[in-house]
Write a structure and sequence with these properties.
The chain is of the alpha/beta class. The chain contains eleven helices and eleven strands. Helix content is 43%, strand content 23%. The longest helix has 25 residues.
């Protein structure tokens, strides 16, 4: 079975489009169609239904999909194993991370790593932490540095690196800022600007209010913390942000019995053997947790 044909099949299945698969493979659309047709001929079965512009997997395609993914993963591991025979830490490392961590935590680590291991090429993808977990699950990223999921993820190995305290914040002129101490009940009576409640950070906040039987008035939800800070700074509501993000545009609210934090760290798949490059980067992360490397 030709691995190039399998790769074309996987990309068409993933994108739902022969043209998008062709773009990713740097081929023409007819070339991708030919590869899929060759695979269909070899398997003696139709893999895709083509109805107008819609592309969907047939029953045979759905049966092939998990096997094709495993074959692709094994091929990646085979290439990695050969590269790892070289004594030098080198090769490519695909790293997924969140915008916040990429801006506030990783720069000094990346600088240190690139000087220590100049033969490693790091390909960084910025995304929500939840999306990064999905990429790790699918084998499309080797390592992620993200907000760790609040619950157990059975197929993941997580390495906590940084505690990230979260504070209640608001514009100085907001009605809540005039009170020396507050209860969560006070906050529940005012609009909030928060990370999406489907995100790991949002889940932490929601759980805090759920445990007290309180409702959140979410006037705006976005996954970009910089946007949340800006919206709160112009008085559109109170918010919860990492302590490190507080600036002169916001004041901290003292809320009784409401200390919360999240954990940032490294994530990789339990069944995946990390490359020498990924192992080296993980060691740099772990050293950062021990404060050996200045992270600002």
């Amino acid at each position: 079975m030709d691995t190039q044909n399998l790769q074309a099949f996987l990309l068409v299945a993933e994108t739902g489009s022969f043209s998008l698969a062709a773009e990713q493979l740097h081929l023409t659309q007819p070339a991708v169609s030919k590869r899929v047709a060759q695979l269909e001929e070899q398997l003696d079965g139709k893999l895709f239904d083509r109805i107008g512009r819609n592309i969907g997997l047939t029953e045979a395609g759905k049966a092939l999909l998990p096997h094709a993914k495993r074959i692709q993963q094994e091929l990646r591991l085979a290439v990695q194993s050969v590269h790892d025979l070289d004594g030098e830490v080198s090769g490519a490392l695909r790293l997924a991370t969140s915008h916040h961590i990429g801006l506030h935590r990783l720069p000094p680590l990346l600088s240190y790593f690139s000087e220590a291991f100049p033969a490693v090429h790091i390909d960084i993808d910025f995304m929500d932490s939840e999306q990064a977990y999905d990429l790790i699950t699918q084998g499309k990223a080797e390592l992620a540095v993200v907000t760790l999921a609040p619950g157990d993820q059975g197929n993941m190995i997580t390495r906590p690196i940084w505690r990230d305290p979260l504070d209640f914040m608001v514009q100085a002129d907001h009605a809540l800022s005039s009170k020396e101490t507050l209860e969560l009940q006070d906050l529940s009576e005012h609009p909030a600007i928060l990370p999406g409640l489907n995100t790991y950070t949002g889940q932490i906040v929601k759980r805090l209010f759920d445990e007290r039987g309180l409702q959140l008035q979410v006037s705006l939800a976005t996954n970009y913390l910089e946007t949340i800070r800006m919206m709160a700074s112009v008085g559109l509501g109170w918010t919860i942000l990492p302590r490190s993000m507080k600036d002169s545009s916001l004041v901290k609210l003292e809320v009784e019995n409401a200390c919360i934090e999240r954990t940032l760290g490294g994530v990789y798949h339990r069944e995946r053997s990390l490359s020498r490059a990924a192992n080296a980067f993980m060691q740099v992360l772990l050293r950062s947790a021990d404060s050996d490397i200045e992270t600002g």
